[in-house]
Amino acid sequence: MKIRVAGIAVAVAASLVLGACGGNTDDDTSSSSASASAGPFEFPDARGKNVSLEKTPQTVVAQSTVAASLWDAGYQVKGAYGELTPGADGKLSYQAGSLDLTKVEVLGKTYGEFDTEKYALMNPQLIVDQTFDKKALWYVPQAQASRVEKLAPSLALPGQFTDTDEAIKTYVDLAGKLGADTESDALKTAKTNYESALKSVSDVAKSSGLKVAIMSPGKDSLYVVVPDKLSEGTTLKAQGLDLINPTKMPGAADVFAQQSWEEATAYQDVDVILVDARTYDGSKADLAKIATWANLPAVKAGQVYPWYAAAPYSYTAYAKIYQELATDLGKAKKL
Questions:
Q1: Global confidence as pTM
Q2: Which of 75, 238, 294, 324 is most buried by its number of CB atoms within 10 A?
């Protein structure tokens, strides 16, 4: 199931989704594609096939989250598209990680944008995206999909993994197949930081006994995550965090349970809410007018913290995410 990120209505209506400091080794990795082995290149595609090429692709284009994940693993793509529009502070969305847009061709800055002509002029050799239905590339507009697929081979990675360990390892493996040095000191340090952040989460989770829910509040409905269907959900549960299920479970394939705002009262015993960071800041004023949200104990106590949905799957990104979560949980209290 998928969330297409383009505001609350789109993000939630498309049934889910789905984390940054500089983990790429700039000077060390700027020539990573040039130093890639001659080939052949082969990598499993989430649509049920292997992508096999006689030569390792040199001109690789990727969706922003994918590009950022590879970037942190030591591989710099030549082009990117997706969530790249800077916010009011001038900074890129966290979904773009530590991408340096001065070093890539930008083919689109948000969902629904893809400059096919510019893409064609790049003479691409591979495009990499995610898929949530095992059919379509997540961020390539459907109307342009056929032409995009004809211009270069495509590789679709899973939109969801068992946990963030598996996800990150997959991206590191792909970066290595494309020519990155996956034994670099920078990557080893990033992994150590990631493991340290996870331990911090584990320590506070076990000592605090906090009950936590992951949510994406929409204008007309509340969407509550089934933790076991989310990569970071299973990871955090494994660290001892008490992540609760929705009070009304969705279908077996769904990550979110869609519930009415009247049903939000069922979450009175939740101590902490992790809320969709893509849409929450822009919706706070509207949510404050919804009594069943505003009167939840976690909301009244100010114990609402970010859930970085669709963040890059990298040690760098998730070290930051998990360390921030450990800090936030350390400030929270049982209600």
A1: 0.88
A2: 75
